[in-house]
Amino acid sequence: MFDRLSSLVIALTLVAIAAIFATLAGGDAQSIAIMVLAGFLAAITVYSALPGASHGTQGTDTPQAAAPPVSLLRHPDFAHWVDQEKEPLIGTADNIVTIANDAAIRLLGRHIVGADVRTAIRHPAATDWLSQMGENAPPDTINLIDFPRPGQRWTMRIAALSGREQIIFLSDRSAIDAADRMRSDFVANASHELRTPLAAILGYVETLQDMNGETDGPTRHRFLSIIEREARRMQQLVIDLLSISRVEADRFRRPTTPVDLAAIVKTTIAQLRDSEHPRAKDVVAKLGDDPQPMLGDEAQLGQLAHNIISNAMKYGHAGTPVTVELVREGSRVRLSVSDEGDGIAPDHLPRLTERFYRVDEARSRSVGGTGLGLAIVKHISERHQGQLDIDSEVGKGTRVSVAFPLPSNG
User: Fold this and answer.
1) Could you tell me which of 73, 74, 101 has the C-alpha nearest to residue 88?
2) DSSP assignment, residue 95?
3) Global pTM value
């Protein structure tokens, strides 16, 4: 391919040859001069239009030097995207932090910008991995256990860019781990709670099978009573397990059905009084005559009231009142149940709504508790946007209350 100088030389040569032939052919001087000038101008025009010669040795095609890679971390659109990310994100160049979003600043501190990333993320696993990372290392994920505080877990993933730049993504997995532990604990506790009465039932059944016909009736009756009690305990546990499963499945669906909380509580109290519970007559109702309209699930609200009142009947002292009240408090209505029992120590109160948690396990089993009653109350309260409060004084008793919002037109 000719360059601009070669093209100019050829053009001028052709003009000169044309002038010589014109002279030999007897052309006049003026015509020859005009032809030479026109040819010269045409050569100059061609020279200007042709691309310039490449730098370097003339006559050779030398490729231009490659442009330096563009830094993604310094692109304004990248910085805008980083600021919108909710999880911590860090950009590094040669292991130096050049950019960090707000989430990363909150997690690690503002001082990390400009610092070595191996000291910015202070975790042994992160330091070791970052020290071994090469420019072309494939993306991978590592776990940061007990980071940034004991009991928490984060994951770190790196995306390698050109020019020894990297993007580090940090994700909080603490809540997922807690949910997994809760699920595992729930299965283990449920299995244990079912296995205990089942073992008692099988044991007494085998004993009865080994008895001969001459065994006295009272012993047989006592064994059968124990079997019945344990079977009912298993039945109640299964019912509670199904209940908490249904409530959790509905927890994101707000109730839209108008109900009367006062009527629901009155029905629950009537059912308890008609039962064979030895403390059925200790229930004292202070509900008033006015209806308490709200949006709710009638069956779940009935179960909530039943669980709270039953707990007070179980753990209050025999012969003392179990007081059930309904009180309007501005735009809310509060259902409260008080007993006069041994009370609960303050360190136990935060854990009372945990599944299978018992303050006194032996006593709870003796009165037929499954350890799920208040957990169900908590989930039903949350679904109805209610506020659950538990107040207790050791030696005096306990008060459990739930405040529900009333409809705006109620």
Assistant:
1) 101
2) T
3) 0.56
